[in-house]
Amino acid sequence: MGRPRAAARRTGKAAGPAAERFRRRVFGHLLALAVAFVAAEAALFRSGVADPIAAALGAVPWPMVLGVYIVVGWLASRWAHRLRSPAAQYAALALYLAVKVVIFVPLLDHAERFAPGSLEAAAWLTVAGFAALCWIGLHTGVDLSFLRSLLVWGGFAALLLILSAWLYGWRLGSWFPVGMIALAGASVLYDSQRLGRARGGRAPAAALRLFAAIAMMFWYSLRLARRLRTGAG
Fold first, then answer.
1. CA–CA separation, 127 vs 149, rounded Å?
2. Do 140 and 187 touch, CB atoms closer than 8 A?
3. 58, 107, 133, 140: most buried by Cβ count inside 10 Å?
């Protein structure tokens, strides 16, 4: 009995219908988050509210915006994992989604104005990349737990580079968004394999982790596409 179970753990495949139901719930939540994000952004741009938001965020130092986002993301993830009330878990998801929608406004606005076509290219790259990496994470026989350390240290290194670039006026080249896309991909691999091994858990929290990785992949895919089209940073 021990060997089959160990083999199942190595391949990342959780047995039983309960695990399959949990995965379906997670992907259902993830789809709902993606649709809500697109709908919210479309509503902001169509109503004209996006313009003052972009102007306001443009006047705020980026590290301050990034700091707020990191704190809110940490709190939302913590609440989604630890709070027992389903209403509280969904409130955490809504908070994270709202902050993500607002932070994306300036980048989307610039891409729409000055880099036509970059938005579509980034979206297709993100969807294709996520689907492929998620499939690999769910079905690979390789243990990807080592990616956790890489994600932690890679996140700290990226934050340090962003702060240093802002403080000293460094211009991060195209290699930086490429590296961040790779880091987001590693997060998708790690979290999807954990999802493949799950036999239960909190679907909102698992969906939040995957949505955060998708959003990061889309953010830097869009920055890369914009840079390639306009030379902007």
1. 25
2. no
3. 133
